[in-house]
């Protein structure tokens, strides 16, 4: 009997403890990353601050920028803070390069930066993964203030997803003592010139899909349709593409041509065994040092296809500042991103690091144009082809690289080139399953 | 296998048996954990079990049940954007994040499994308490119980920490990643913007049977992986044995010096030597420059060591010898000095020459001892990430393949699938599982057939 009573008591105690649990039926903080699996939390969404309200709100912003930019980034952020007394901002800086930003964000968007710099070839991927915040504040001002191509690169399906701040593309560096300004207009003229034994006339990274596209675009081929939105269309294997392919085979086989790999152009420039090479502003300082007084840069040359001169047309890529869709302070984050990509900061970057601007006012500024590399980049940008921003673009890189590789190692010959071009195109247009 | 199955069945049958045998207190402790101990006087023990039950039920009610439900659906609500006219911005409508749901589902499965183990332990403790009482003995108090964990049960105390670590940091993540293979978590279904969901064995079908780009890549890459593993393993093994034999000969002078020389290549970190070799073998690298200087090839020509598919495949196998042979040499040196000298003496008396002695005495002995090592090496080479990644990066990439090159092994290919421009996690996970099956089946079959497994008592 006594036992039974005890039993009953224990039972009641247990029941009571459950009832206690039942009362406070609110989820505690996540302990396993399973935070709140039934829609948005209300506790997480701070009401966005009204622009122009008088009360000071506490805001924490995580900002990512590459290593080289950390110092000026801190200055710029402090300036922003001073200009916005309505926020009490705490900055949290992280070192992530533009190339790695997309990768880092995809690992765990919620833990990523609120504001970050990234390369425009990632725009579509990030927008499709729902990581980029659509930009609507002052969007018109951003679109009007920057070059049209840069705005296009930041736009997916008509919606702006980032703030452009610098072109990120390539052009030609050359040695003034070896070529005149006249000669560098045509690649065929350059290759025809005899510069003596052991000197290579021209170098480009053929087995790099980012570079090889310039030849196909010069020939008039298109990738994903004329406006880059059709995932089932690529004309790299038409008659124009065939002419380009043959041109590339001849170029690669030319003893005066050097394939750019593992930074060999810098060594070649230093010891005077190279006359011209294709690269971007990231190499400007090193090449300037290597060439000394003979340092010069210009737009890409034209190539002769079927008797016509065709201008090489590189991908118009840019670097953008984006805002994380998971941010809890969307408005301050957008304002900061806009400022960091604005005219003032583009000027600071140009002065500190020779980063070319996309801002229309700055790009036309004679001071900016005095820098050969920046001027060449601006000059080339009018001949660029916009890089497609559809997800299928992710499929382009590997097959194009493979095509370039096979041209260099002789797997592609004039006999099988049509087949190889067809293979490349079908790989670019393929879907897994 | 049968034994293991029986063990699992007994583990579960224990509950039923005990329930039949237990008195009413023991029966009660099936529902209220620890009650048997608590009411028989083992207060602390009983309360600990009760606390575990309360904690688990509390977890289940607050998070666990929704996590388990989420594991079944992997999310239903996609992230959306709604225009807020007043603020002039889109407001993000948080959707479900399939990846986090999968993760929390896996965690709740693990906690449930852990709870089962504790539940069984509590029943066992309750039944033991009943038995001790029935025998008329005194129940051990808290201190005595704790003392047993430093005496008769010390193995449990010592194993607790490593086991927790392995479960948390190896088994749980591994389980999570294996599950990804059965979802469509690829580049088109990236959270937080998109949901992914369970698709069963579809990924395996696509990879193995579809004839699509990815399966047209899988089979050739698998073929090369096996060719590579066979050549890399056998050549390293034979080379190592021959080198050890050469150094071990009576006629060889300064044996220590030779051994040291070859071991130096181990002393240099592998990736350093591989990267150096990579730059040396470039089309314009040191080796090609040397060949030009010597007039072996024309001034503008080059040998495509790493840029032509066939050359590159031969190159990686040869360079791998440089990295691998010294290890085998070290191992075999020890074994060779263990072979009884009288075997050789009697062979010579019988008039056997060096070749016969090598094949009849040395090789059988060495093979017998090193077969397990050979199998480990073979599996290691199937997954030999370093050599391929540092030397060629899988290149030269080919138009026939999906995101892969001619020297890519399955393991480097799945690395590219997860870290490249495409985030095809589900395919990569499926490939990882296939590689595991391949390695496991091969090693089990071959190991069970080795002489060292079947005739352990020989050569004592």
UniProtKB/TrEMBL annotation, chain A:
Coiled coil: none annotated. One of its GO terms (biological process) is maltodextrin transmembrane transport. PROSITE patterns: PROKAR_LIPOPROTEIN. Residues 28-44 have a biased composition (Low complexity). GO terms for molecular function: maltose binding. The keyword Cytoplasm does not apply. It holds the Pfam family SBP_bac_8. Residues 1-19 form the signal peptide. Keywords: Signal, Transport. Residues 25-55 are annotated as: Disordered. Residues 45-55 have a biased composition (Polar residues). GO terms for cellular component: ATP-binding cassette (ABC) transporter complex, substrate-binding subunit-containing. SUPFAM superfamilies: Periplasmic binding protein-like II. PANTHER family: MALTOSE-BINDING PERIPLASMIC PROTEIN (PTHR30061), MALTOSE_MALTODEXTRIN-BINDING PERIPLASMIC PROTEIN (PTHR30061:SF50). Belongs to the bacterial solute-binding protein 1 family. This is ABC transporter substrate-binding protein. It comes from Anaerocolumna cellulosilytica.
From TrEMBL, chain B:
Coiled coil: none annotated. InterPro entries: MetI-like, MetI-like_sf. It is a multi-pass membrane protein. It is found in: Cell membrane. Pfam families: BPD_transp_1. It comes from the Bacteria. Keywords: Cell membrane, Membrane, Sugar transport, Transmembrane, Transmembrane helix, Transport. The keyword Cell membrane applies. GO terms for molecular function: ABC-type maltose transporter activity. One of its GO terms (biological process) is maltodextrin transmembrane transport. GO terms for cellular component: maltose transport complex. The chain crosses the membrane at residues 47-74, 99-119, 158-182, 221-245, 257-277, 314-336, 356-375, 425-445. Belongs to the binding-protein-dependent transport system permease family. MalFG subfamily. Part of the ABC transporter complex MalEFGK involved in maltose/maltodextrin import. Probably responsible for the translocation of the substrate across the membrane. This is Maltose/maltodextrin transport system permease protein. It comes from Anaerocolumna cellulosilytica.
């Amino acid at each position: 009997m006594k036992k039974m009573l005890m039993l009953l008591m224990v039972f009641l105690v247990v029941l009571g403890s459950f009832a206690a649990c039942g009362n406070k039926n609110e989820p505690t903080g996540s302990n396993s990353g399973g935070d709140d699996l039934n829609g948005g939390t209300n506790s997480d969404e701070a009401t966005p601050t009204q622009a122009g309200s008088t009360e000071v709100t506490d805001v924490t912003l995580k900002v990512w920028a590459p290593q080289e930019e950390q110092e000026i980034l801190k200055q710029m952020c402090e300036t922003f803070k001073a200009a916005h007394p309505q926020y009490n901002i705490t900055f949290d800086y992280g070192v992530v390069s533009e190339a790695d930003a997309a990768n880092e964000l995809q690992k765990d968007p919620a833990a990523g930066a609120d504001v970050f710099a990234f390369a425009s070839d990632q725009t579509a991927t990030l927008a499709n993964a729902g990581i980029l915040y659509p930009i609507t504040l002052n969007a018109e001002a951003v679109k009007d203030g920057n070059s049209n191509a840069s705005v296009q690169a930041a736009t997916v399906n008509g919606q702006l997803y980032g703030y452009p701040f610098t072109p990120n593309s390539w052009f030609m560096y050359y040695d003034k003592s070896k070529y005149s300004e006249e000669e560098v207009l045509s690649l065929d003229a350059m290759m025809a010139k005899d510069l003596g034994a052991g000197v290579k006339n021209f170098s480009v990274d053929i087995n790099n899909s980012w570079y090889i596209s310039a030849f196909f675009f010069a020939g008039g081929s298109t990738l994903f349709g004329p406006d880059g939105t059709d995932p089932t269309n690529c004309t790299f294997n038409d008659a124009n593409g065939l002419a380009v392919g043959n041109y590339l085979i001849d170029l690669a086989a030319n003893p005066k041509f050097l394939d750019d790999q593992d930074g060999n152009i810098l060594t070649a420039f230093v010891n005077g065994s190279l006359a011209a090479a294709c690269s971007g502003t990231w190499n400007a300082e090193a090449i300037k040092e290597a060439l000394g007084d003979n340092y010069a840069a210009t737009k890409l040359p034209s190539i002769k296809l079927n008797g016509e001169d065709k201008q090489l047309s590189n991908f118009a890529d840019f670097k953008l500042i984006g805002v994380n869709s998971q941010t809890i302070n969307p408005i301050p984050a957008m304002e900061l991103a806009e400022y960091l990509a604005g005219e003032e900061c583009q000027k600071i970057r140009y002065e500190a690091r020779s980063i070319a601007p996309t801002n229309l006012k700055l790009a036309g500024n004679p001071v900016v144009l005095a820098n050969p590399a920046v001027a060449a980049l601006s000059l080339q940008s009018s001949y660029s082809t916009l890089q497609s921003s559809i997800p299928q673009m992710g499929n382009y890189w590997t097959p194009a690289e493979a095509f370039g590789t096979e041209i260099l190692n002789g797997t592609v010959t004039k006999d099988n080139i049509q087949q190889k071009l067809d293979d490349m195109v079908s790989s670019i247009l393929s879907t897994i399953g | 296998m049968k034994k293991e199955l029986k063990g699992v069945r007994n583990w579960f049958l224990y509950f039923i048996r005990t329930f039949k045998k237990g008195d009413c207190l023991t029966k009660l402790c099936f529902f209220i954990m620890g009650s048997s101990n608590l009411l028989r006087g083992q207060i602390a023990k009983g309360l600990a079990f009760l606390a575990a039950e309360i904690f688990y039920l509390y977890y289940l009610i607050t998070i666990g049940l929704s996590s388990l439900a989420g594991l079944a659906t992997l999310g239903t609500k996609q992230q959306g954007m709604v225009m807020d006219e007043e603020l002039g911005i889109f407001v993000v409508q948080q959707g479900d994040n399939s990846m986090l749901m999968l993760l929390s589902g896996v965690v709740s499965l693990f906690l449930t499994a852990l709870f089962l183990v504790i539940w069984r332990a509590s029943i066992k403790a309750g039944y033991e308490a009943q038995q001790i009482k029935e025998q008329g003995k005194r129940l051990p108090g808290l201190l005595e119980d704790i003392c047993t964990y430093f005496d008769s049960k010390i193995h449990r105390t010592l194993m607790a920490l490593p086991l927790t670590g392995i479960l948390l940091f190896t088994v749980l993540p591994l389980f999570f990643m294996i599950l990804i293979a059965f979802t469509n978590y690829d580049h088109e279904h990236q959270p937080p913007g998109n949901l992914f969901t369970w698709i069963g064995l579809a990924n395996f079908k696509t990879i193995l049977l579809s004839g699509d780009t990815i399966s047209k890549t899988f089979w050739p890459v698998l073929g090369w992986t096996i060719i590579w593993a066979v050549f890399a393993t056998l050549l390293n093994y034979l080379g190592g044995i021959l080198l050890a034999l050469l150094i071990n000969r009576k006629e060889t002078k300064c044996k220590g010096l030779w051994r040291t020389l070859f071991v130096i290549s181990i002393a240099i970190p592998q990736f350093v030597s591989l990267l150096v070799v990579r730059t040396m073998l470039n089309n314009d690298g040191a080796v090609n420059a040397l060949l030009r200087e010597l007039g072996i090839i024309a001034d503008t020509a080059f040998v495509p060591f790493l840029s032509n598919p066939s050359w590159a495949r031969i190159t990686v196998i040869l360079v791998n010898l440089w990295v691998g042979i010294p290890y085998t040499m070290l191992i075999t040196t020890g074994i060779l000095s263990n072979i009884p000298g009288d075997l050789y003496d009697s062979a010579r008396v019988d008039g056997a020459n060096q070749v016969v002695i090598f094949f009849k005495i040395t090789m059988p002995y060495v093979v017998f001892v090193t077969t397990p090592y050979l199998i480990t090496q073979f599996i290691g080479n199937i997954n030999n990430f370093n050599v391929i990644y540092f030397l060629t990066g899988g290149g030269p990439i080919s138009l026939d393949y999906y995101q892969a090159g001619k020297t890519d092994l399955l393991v480097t290919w799945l690395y590219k699938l997860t870290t490249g421009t495409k985030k095809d996690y589900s395919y990569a996970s499926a490939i990882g599982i296939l590689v595991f099956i391949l390695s496991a089946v091969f090693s089990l079959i071959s190991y069970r057939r080795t002489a060292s497994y079947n005739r352990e008592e020989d050569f004592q």
